[in-house]
Amino acid sequence: MWLKAWSESRARFLAIALTLSALCAFAVLFEPYFRQHQVPIALRQREGSYTEYIYNLIYSGTAKGVYALLVIFLGLGGLQRERANRTAGFTLALPVSRLRVVGNQIAVGTIELAALALVPAILIPSLSAFSARSYPLSVALHFSVRWFFCGLVIFAASFLLSVVTPGEYTAPVVCYLALVLHTFVAAWHPLAGYRLNLMWIMGEFQTMHWNAAHSLLQPPPLSWPRMSVMAFFALLLLSAAIRVTDKQDF
């Protein structure tokens, strides 16, 4: 069942990984071009430090948005999609429970999600060194942790929607609309102070600070209670997806 879950999500995972890798590689290797032409990102400080450049382009810019969007497709799973492809009967005929089927999909998806969150942490420092630049591995890993936990919520929401909604494209469209709606709700004045916006949490907006030498743009310490709350919320969504799958009539 592990191999089955991997084979079903492998193409999506590799496509997302290649996309993120390409964005990271272009950001580092073509830094002079981006700084000169400011495309496609408008930098806050055109002549800012290298760490600010990477932050604006990767961790609070294009790469972050692409990651959040594509994680929606990584979360597609459940038996509804197999029903649409007329393969649900084969899966249900296997000598395993539905819990194991969706459980393996969730486990494989979570591992893939962690790997995707680590892509910038692997490429940015290594490619920076190759380009005679320097980017701290500790800062890159800090953002990878944030990307993983925020991505886990998006993954769980997408998985639940793919379980409860029929059709190939219904779940990703609804999940995308829910993500957009969530940003507006999180910006609502009574809630704004709680900083519930996942995109904000991923990018550390307004909380980044410079070191004493004003040469390194660095994030504040991780809020593990906030990360734990997001993990718990994702667990609730995934538990609901498992429960719905167990009661579905195919």
Notes on the structure:
The protein is 72% helix and 2% strand. By secondary structure, the chain is mainly alpha-helical. The chain has one domain (2-247). It has a two-stranded antiparallel sheet with strand order 1-2. A hairpin with a 6-residue loop joins β1 (209-210) and β2 (217-218).
What is this entry, summarized?
The chain has 250 residues and is mostly helical. It has helices spanning 2-29, 31-37, 50-59, 62-74, 80-84, 88-93, 98-130, 137-164, 170-186, 189-192, 198-203, 224-247, and strands at residues 209-210, 217-218.
Query: Could you tell me the number of beta strands?
Result: 2
H/E topology pattern: HHHHHHHHHHHEEH
How is the main sheet built?
A: 2 strands, antiparallel
- Structural class by sheet pairing and helices: mainly alpha
Structural topology:
Elements: H1 2-29, H2 31-37, H3 50-59, H4 62-74, H5 80-84, H6 88-93, H7 98-130, H8 137-164, H9 170-186, H10 189-192, H11 198-203, E1 209-210, E2 217-218, H12 224-247
Antiparallel strand pairs: 1-2
Name some characteristics of this structure.
single chain, 250 residues, mainly alpha, two-stranded antiparallel sheet, 12 helices, 72% helix, globular
